[in-house]
Design a protein that fits this description.
The structure holds 3 protein chains of 3 kinds. By secondary structure, chain A is mainly α. Helices cover 88% and strands 0% of the residues of chain A. Chain A is built from 8 helices and no strands. In chain A, helix 1 packs antiparallel against helix 4 and helix 6 packs antiparallel against helix 7. The longest helix of chain A is centred in the N-terminal third of the chain and has 53 residues. Chain B folds into 3 domains: 376 residues, TIM Barrel (Alpha-Beta Barrel), CATH 3.20.20; 53 residues, Alpha-Beta Complex (Oligo-1,6-glucosidase, domain 2); 82 residues, Golgi alpha-mannosidase II (Immunoglobulin-like), CATH 2.60.40.1180. An 8-stranded parallel barrel of chain B has the order 1-2-3-7-8-9-10-14. A 5-stranded antiparallel beta sheet of chain B has the order 15-16-17-21-19. The longest helix of chain B has 17 residues. Chain B starts with 14 loop residues before the first strand and ends with a strand. In chain B, 50% of the residues are buried. Chain C has 19 helices and 9 strands. In chain C, strands 1, 2, 3, 4, 5, 6, 7, 8 and 9 form a 9-stranded mixed beta sheet that branches. Chain C starts with a helix and ends with a helix. The chains are: A mainly alpha, B alpha/beta, C alpha/beta. The interface between B and C is medium-sized, with 28 and 17 residues.
Chain lengths: 233, 546, 423
Amino acid sequence: MKDTIVQGLQQAYLNLFHMIAEFLPRLVVMLVIILSGLLVAYALKYMVRAVLRLTKLDRLSEEAGASRVLRMAALPSMTEVLSRSVFWITLLGFILIGISILNIAGLQEQISRLLRLLPEIVVAMLILFLGLVIANFLSRAALLAAVNAGYASPKMLSWSIRFGILILAIAMALDELGVARQTVIAAFSIVFGAFMLGLAIAFGLGGQGLARSFLERSLGEKKEDKADELQPL
Amino acid sequence: MAMQDDNLWYKDAVIYQLHVRTFCDSDGNGIGDFRGLTNKLDYLQELGINAIWLLPFYPSPLRDDGYDISDYTSVNPTYGTIDDFKTFLAAAHSRRIRVITELVLNHTSDQHPWFQEARSSQDNPRRDWYVWSDTDTRYQGVRIIFLDTEMSNWSWDPISKSYYWHRFFSHQPDLNFDNPAVREAMWDVMKFWCDIGVDGFRLDAVPYLVEREGTSCENLPETHAVIRDLRMKLDQAYPGKMLLAEANQWPADVRAYFGEADEFHMAFHFPLMPRMFMAVKLEDRKPIIEILEQTPQIPDSCQWCIFLRNHDELTLEMVTDIERDYMYDAFANDKAMRINLGIRRRLAPMMENDRRRIELLNGLLLSMPGTPIIYYGDEIGMGDNVYLGDRNGVRTPMQWNGGWNAGFSSSDPERLYSPLISNPVYGYQSINVDSQRRSEHSLLSWTKSVIQTRNSFRVFSRGSIEFLSPSNHRVLAYVRQLGEEKVLVVNNLSSSAQAVELNLQSYKGHIPIEMFGRNLFPRIGDLPYLLTLAPYQFFWFRLRRI
Amino acid sequence: MAEDILLGDDFLRQLMSVGEVDLLVAIPTYNNAGTVAQTIQAIENSYQQNFVRDRVVILNVDGGSTDHTTDTILSMNGKKSAAHRGITSLRTVHRVTTQYGRSPSQGMALRTILAAADLLRARSCAIVSPATTNLDPSWIANLLRPAYRQDFAFVAPLYSRTKFQGLLARNLLYPMSRAVFGLRIREMYSDEWGFSGRLATQCLNQNLWGEEAVRNRPEAWMAVTAICSGMKCCQSFLGPKAPPPPGSGPDIVETIRQTVGNLFWCFETFQEHWMDRTGTEAVPTFGSDHELLPEDAPASQEKSFELFRTGVKELDTILSSILRPDTLAQIRSIAGAEAGKFRFEPELWVRMMYEFAASYHRSVIARDHILQALVPLYRGHLYSFLLEHRGSSVEEMEADSEALCVEFERQKPYLIERWKAKS
């Protein structure tokens, strides 16, 4: 019996050794691929950056207003964003190729699925990003307007708008990815509908609080306000 | 045309104004005379004028250039005899040139026998021929005309120990037109000259004939009555003779002197004249348009007399203070050029000898409604001498040639009644009739051709006027019309080239034919008619519908 | 190109008829049928009284009025009853009208005016507002003369104001623009001003018509252009500044967006010109100097203080991206004060404004949001000012004003430092 165990272990170690021996070259190849991918990615990044700098993309994006958007989302300049994106996408591609070399069953399939999903992921990320930016911008605009007009709860208005837009963006992103489509649509409808219903009730119940002051300010009181205001110029 | 046929001859006249003294001296005494003038009638006939207006040539102490008359029915011996005058008249008539003389109704010289008698005693039969007063307080507040020299309209006569009335110089006592004898006497004077054959009279200083307490003593109804009376007698006895009023007033006030075609035949349009100069200087037609808009209609048989310059200063009485200041600054910066309320300069120097501007102003003169008067010497662009006293700077001898005394007189130059203009620009060596006759393109030749063109078309003398109002204010455009004859006149008043679009819709279908070159211009259509004009250029177009 | 729309055929034809002019007065209108006749009469009287020999034109540029403003103007062209004797004026006075667009825009109006001034070779121009009800003929002459007779490029108006009038200008726009650009022009933001033909041509050719700052408050841009081109600027006294009718004109938020936004944009656009300037110079002043007139203290502005406090609290996140932490901390601290004891120190006010300007330059957030965030802080400063000067005399207020200007000048290096900083 001892011999069987020893033999068995020996066989197992041998198998493992063989597996490792078989795996190692692939690993090495993978590492080589990833390393070369790193080099290629860097090279591409610098090339793209140089080309974009030559074409003065930053100036164009500044004029188009895109740079402002990037700044607000705490991102670096357009050239930088694009060159870094090129870097990461290249590297990711090489990593995926490298992983595929490993020939791990099942992983292959997942990788190809991931690769197929890649464009949709990018679009979904874009939608989220845009949604974030718009939510940020509009909620801030609403906050400023409400504060300057003297509304009672400016933050609430601002949050409502941010919340609403974010919900919409998330729903659109998930829909893009095809993740639990029906559930998402239903949930979005419920949440958004409830929100709108809440507002309607508030208005409908004789214009309480925020609703009343909103109406008063926009229709009546404003003239009184203006008379109070001194002539600024 | 026969001389006596047309009773409205004055409407078609182109009048040439001169003083016999300035024109031509035949006897070598340095002063022009009638014989000399007679010798130059060919020149005037060639020029194309058909009427001569003579400044006063009567015996006179000459303290007001002949307007102080001491004998109404004679000729100042310096200028010749009454026979010389008759010879001149006949020669003029034979060349179809009419003659208009001066009749100074309002006053005489204090050397006139009438005044000598009137002042001799308070009982003299002629006493009442003048206006006397024991005090100088009658007719208070009446304005003084010769502000530079007179302090009052009354002067003390030491001989008859009373005051006499004079609206002008103190040596020109006013006649009393309330006295029928005076009116009769003036009618006799008129008859005298009419019998000789004179064609018309310029009545000097008509607004001032009659005085009444509590009035301005100007333009009174009684004055008009005197005129009407004279006119009636004239029409009855001498049909076809013309009366021309010298009334320096606003057009609305001059209107009264036409009456109902029973007073004057013609009157000077004084206010228009400075505004023609102003319009060219401002490069804006507004002054001309405005004054003509304020000019009332006159009876059909009557006519305005228009002119650019004359023997007097360019009067600035009938303009606003703003306009007067502008005219002074524009044309008479040197105070020596100013006298009374006017500018004593000739046309050419005022236009800085700019041929184009001189032509433009003459073009206006000869195309606007009214009988034009050309002042002697302006047809050759004579200059002036503002350093001679009074208004003598514009009364220098006529420049006939570049030789001895400019061909005016054979006398010693020092003997001439006035120095000649002799500077290099306007002097007789460069500006004279003979040298300008030699060139087809001289100012003289040009003036001749323009007068000829004007004379060929009655529309200028008798037609109506309709002003066009293009939005370009630097262009003055109007249409003269008489029956079917239509002439479009377009004047560029500015020193730069102009484009103008004229609304000629009422003349659609007509073909404009430029009158000097007789070239065809594009037919008038629906669109505004576009013309471009060089600086100071003007067009006369016949509008023909063929 | 937009030039095609700028000079339509009809407008061009009108300009052709006018020809060269010496003086041009322009009236931008939008639904001003009620007051425009008065304005035109004032201009004509001014021409008659002061410029009777000069070639002049009155130009109306309309932004698509629906109340027949242009018809009102054109109907004034009818012949006046002829004066009894002589004429009313030496020269033809042209009145040109054109529509520059279907909706009102100060920038487009100005652009049309500058194009006309350029084509007509006008030597001196002035712009007047049809809403100024107390426009006097002498005002127009005072705006035209300096450029016409003495070669000034920009003529700013000068008014006599009551003590509590024009506080935005007095406490912010004037001292800040004075400190930065180095010239003491009090009223860079106004409804009437004058300029030379040369400046008109230069501004016309700059082609900045797409900029919002130029579209909304072009007069300040013209002034700054003149200053930075080394042209001569001056001020000309007009008269009392009439208050606008209640309810007309933009509210304080919009006013700050337009004026302060314009000012910051000018800082940005002309930055090479003001960084090296130190100190300030007075500009020649024609007529009286500006003056402050006594006025009763206005009604309590407690509301402003409330809005200030709310603003500081609610906009904290936004303000923290605009202001430096220590400045924001100080503002938070004063927001906690009692209403009666509140004081917005000049030193803090100036520092805060310069940080706003620098943040605007770096676009830390949307620029329009930066301007809106300023409004509650301005309200706070206004409240503090009114509290402090409720019983002040005119002299005390003037002294205080001058001290504020000096403070802005003193802290200019701080502006430069913040401007150049990376964050």
